[in-house]
Amino acid sequence: MASTGQMTARSENCTGCLMCQLACSFTKTSEFSPSKSFLSIERIDKSERYEVGFTEDCDGCGVCTQYCYYDAIESE
Ligand code: SF4
Ligand code: SF4
């Protein structure tokens, strides 16, 4: 489990679906563009495991958590 202070990630639950990135980018930039989101979802090697992180621009609004159906991200 990783925590940024405002957000907590449970990377072990992440499926890499990218719903969180779509929700964040649309909320913050009005575009569905994962690369513009304030989360990073990185595949670990070539496995089906992912590492979830948040950029320094994340304000902890929690919108992304509403679209993660795998309990991989949480706002505090
Ligand atoms: S908490 Fe808000 S700003 Fe941070 S990654 Fe989620 S949607 Fe984006
Ligand atoms: S954190 Fe949740 S919404 Fe984001 S890619 Fe992982 S499983 Fe999907």
Q: Rounded to an integer, what's the Rg over CA atoms? A: 11 Å
Low-confidence stretches: none
Q: Major sheet: order of its strands?
A: 1-2-5
Straight-line distance between termini: 13 Å
From the coordinates shown, what is the CATH architecture? 2-Layer Sandwich
- The percent range for helix content is 10-25%
Number of domains as seen in the coordinates: 1
Strand fraction: 15-25%
The coarse overall form would be globular
> Class in CATH?
Alpha Beta
**Overall pLDDT score:** 94
Architecture overview:
The protein has about 80 residues and is of the alpha+beta class. The chain has a single domain (about 1-75), classed as 2-Layer Sandwich (Alpha-Beta Plaits). It contains 1 helix and 5 strands, in the order E-E-H-E-E-E. It has a 3-stranded antiparallel beta sheet with strand order 1-2-5, with no helix packed on it. Strand 1 (about 1-5) and strand 2 (about 5-10) form a beta hairpin. The longest helix is centred in the N-terminal third of the chain and has 11 residues, at about 20-30. The radius of gyration is 11 Å and the shape is globular. The two termini are about 15 Å apart. The relative contact order is 0.34. One iron/sulfur cluster (SF4) binds next to helix 1. One iron/sulfur cluster binds near residues 24, 58, 60, 62 and 75.
SSE blueprint:
Blueprint: E1 2-3, E2 7-9, H1 19-29, E3 39-43, E4 50-54, E5 73-75
Bound molecules: iron/sulfur cluster (2 copies).
